[in-house]
């Protein structure tokens, strides 16, 4: 579970409620306004993307629920272990290791090396797979960001609807003018709803999906460089130093110091 997504949503909602005041919460509920903003932004998103893209949104958004899935430190240790096995017993000895892997991409990368495919072909296939994956993930994140752009726009549409109705009713008799308060409520609350949906829900989800995509790309780049290093017979220690260079400085120091502490 992605704690920061939940924490941010709960904290943001709590601050808004605190700012409104518990006694006044009822003043900020309007079903008509919610339908205009939420329904309108949903309709606009559906009109903007093909069905195949919309179907993938739910599956890819599941990345938020699972939290951080890819740990570069773990895969680096696995690759270094495979490099030691390959230097000692040959590349064919990695087949058993590959069959035990749960990650299809990692398994495919190792099997390409075991099958003695040319390094250039291995890189081309794996990098092509990463590029296609990134494009799919970016499209999913883009759908949420686009919803974040549509929501305030429909909030403004709701504002215009409320204002037009209010002005129309002002020219009517006394009985018709009794709806002015309701019309003004729609006019103002739709903008409120549009801002909340865009800035507290839609755009944060899109941004978090982009972050998860970058983490997976890094993870797979490490795998690509690792298996290619194994194929060329790199020294396991040198291979690890090269792979940890993909990480930030703090993480590099932690991994390299762990090697020193273990006497490697």
Shape: elongated
What does the main sheet amount to?
none
By secondary-structure content and strand pairing, the structural class works out as mainly alpha
H-E string? HHHHHHHHHH
Taking the alpha carbons of the first and last residues, their distance comes to 35 Å
Beta-strand percentage range? under 5%
As residue ranges, the low-confidence spans are none
Mean pLDDT: 87
Report the C-alpha radius of gyration, rounded: 27 Å
Helix content: over 70%
Work out the number of β strands.
0
Q: Helical region count?
A: 10
What keyword list fits this structure?
10 helices, 264 residues, single chain, elongated, 0% strand, mainly alpha
Mind explaining what this structure looks like?
The chain is mainly α and 264 residues long. 80% of the residues lie in helices and 0% in strands. It contains 10 helices and no strands. The chain has helices spanning 3-20, 31-48, 51-66, 72-89, 95-99, 104-114, 119-170, 180-231, 236-244, 249-261.
How do the strands and helices of this protein lay out in sequence?
Elements: H1 3-20, H2 31-48, H3 51-66, H4 72-89, H5 95-99, H6 104-114, H7 119-170, H8 180-231, H9 236-244, H10 249-261
Helix pairs in contact: 1-8, 2-7, 2-8, 3-7, 3-8, 4-8, 4-9, 6-8, 7-8, 8-9
Offer a quick outline of the entry:
This protein has 264 residues and is mainly α.
């Amino acid at each position: 579970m992605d704690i920061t997504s939940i924490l941010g949503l709960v904290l943001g909602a709590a601050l808004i409620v605190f700012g409104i005041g518990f006694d006044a919460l009822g003043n900020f509920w309007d079903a008509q306004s919610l339908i205009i903003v939420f329904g309108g932004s949903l309709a606009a998103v559906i009109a903007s993307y093909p069905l195949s893209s919309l179907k993938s949104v739910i599956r890819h958004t599941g990345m938020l629920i699972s939290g951080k899935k890819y740990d570069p430190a773990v895969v680096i240790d696995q690759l270094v272990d495979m490099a030691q096995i390959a230097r000692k017993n040959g590349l064919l000895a990695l087949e058993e290791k590959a069959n035990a892997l749960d990650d299809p991409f990692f398994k495919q990368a190792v099997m390409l090396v075991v099958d003695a495919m040319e390094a250039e072909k291995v890189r081309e296939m794996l990098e092509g797979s990463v590029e296609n994956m990134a494009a799919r993930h970016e499209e999913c994140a883009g759908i949420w960001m686009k919803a974040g752009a549509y929501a305030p726009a429909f909030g403004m549409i709701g504002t215009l609807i409320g204002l037009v109705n209010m002005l129309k009713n002002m020219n009517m008799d006394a009985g018709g003018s009794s709806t002015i308060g309701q019309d003004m409520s729609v006019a103002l609350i739709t903008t409120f709803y549009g801002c909340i949906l865009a800035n507290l829900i839609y755009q944060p989800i899109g941004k978090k999906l982009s972050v998860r995509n970058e983490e997976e790309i890094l993870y797979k780049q490490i795998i690509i460089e690792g298996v290619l290093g194994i194929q060329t017979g790199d020294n396991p220690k040198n291979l690890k130093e090269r792979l940890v260079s993909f990480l930030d400085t703090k993480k590099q120091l932690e991994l390299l110091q762990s090697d020193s502490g273990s006497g490697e």
